[in-house]
Amino acid sequence: MGRTWLSIAAVVLAAACAGSGHPAPPGGLAYRVPSPPTAKYDVTDSVVVENRPFLQRRQTTRTTATTLGLTFETVPGGVCVTGTAEHFEVSLKGGVVVSAGALPGLADLTGNLNLVINPRGEVEVTSLPELPGEDAALSPFASIAHELFPRLPDRAVDPGDTWVDTVIWSSASMRTETTFTRAYTYTLVGDTVVDGRPLLHIAVAGEAAFETEGQVGPSALSSSSEGQATGLILWDPRRGLLVYAQYEQALEGTSTRAGMPPSSTRHAIFRRVWLVE
Question: CA-CA to 37 of 20 to 30 Å: which in 121, 167, 257, 277?
Fold first, then answer.
């Protein structure tokens, strides 16, 4: 795995120098049951939030590390995916601690990830792993369900071709609900090889936004942010799976609590996903 990771890192650094490549193989950009019909992904997230209430500066960094084992099965209209969390941990630094007491871990999760994807990657989520109480705000699983399977084109594409898609989903905790919007343009850059495996390099650029409504203590909370997003995907056309992806978002907005002036906010979000089995 160490050598594979170094090879992927080299591809990331060299992405800007990628050649014209070759057309994607027929049927390569589509979801289907892979062979073998299982996969395991590591997902790491880093979210840095900066608030500026009353001309002060407060910064909180939240990181999560998740290992998710998946099984795939053909169903009418697409592929059924069942995911079980095999590792989960959260860390918080700075700012106001979201969770009282110990931070949640794998033992606090209940339930599995269950969803159905069609060949293009349109996701219908039926269940997610859940954290109890206020800790639900720390769960990354709603976004993982929608970003682990990037949208694919509904036509054959050549290097340089693009396709556009917008995804909207919501995530709720005890006192808040957040709606996320991702409007991405995908560009097929070309093909590459990592450890002898032919992969497709797909660049990602677009806009991201979220809106939150809820309560903080006795006060109503309203928050919204938007900004630019960039990323890249390495796709295995033989297995029909994402092998590696990274996404970066730089968002700015405002947060308002009842009886208080608006506070400016900044979010720096980084996600890395890689296939380990």
Answer: 167
